[in-house]
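Listing 4. Sequential folding, example run.
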Amino acid sequence: MEAKKANTQVLYNLLYGLEMMPDLGTPFDACTDVNDPTTYVDAIRQYILPEFERLNLENQNTVRGNLQFFLTTRLAPFAELVELCRMEASMPSPDDPAQLFVWIWQALFPSEDYRLADTAGWTVVDDRIEAARVFLAGQKDDGGDHLPPGD
């Protein structure tokens, strides 16, 4: 059985849509309650969900598996990932940075539980190139050959 890879860079790339908010208009202001999911979920639906829906099923499943693994195990550097996004997007951070990823899960997979029953057999990696392949290649509307193999 092939080991499954949990790639922290997939989580970072998932936040890319939120980094587009400064150019498109941010829903956050000084009065935003950083622990209220309402504004975050609206932003996730507006900026992350469309990008996720452009991915082909295989890459959507890759994102899904990565989110499930890291939310179940809490092994991702959630604070670091949210801070990078916050600096780019002028977005306030929730008190628990992992909560942002829970809200992302809830927006992408409503009414589904993220918890994995078994996390054995997973390997944690930090592979930017593989994460880029997930998000740049394999979109529904093309052949998915944006990046050459082996790069």
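-- end of first protein; second protein begins --
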Amino acid sequence: MANYASKFATSDNAYTGGYTSLEVLGNYNDDSKIGRGIVQIHITAGTVDLQAKITAAAPWTTIKTYTESTIEEVVIAPYFRVVASDSAECFYAENS
């Protein structure tokens, strides 16, 4: 079971027609030494870009583009978001 899990939410809770999610903060537990997490990507249509940045002022960088649904381990960055080209739901979890 994950110590922390979150959906990549949108401000209007709409996950169709393309969207950019709100930010998810990595290393939810500031005392954590967790270096890796898990993303679950459920694509109904289109693609999903997983983006990250290491400071609030840094530009967003696409670290992976998903074309099919998957669950995958990722390196935890301080900030994450997803950009869906059409319809998808995406989740993020940390474990210790």
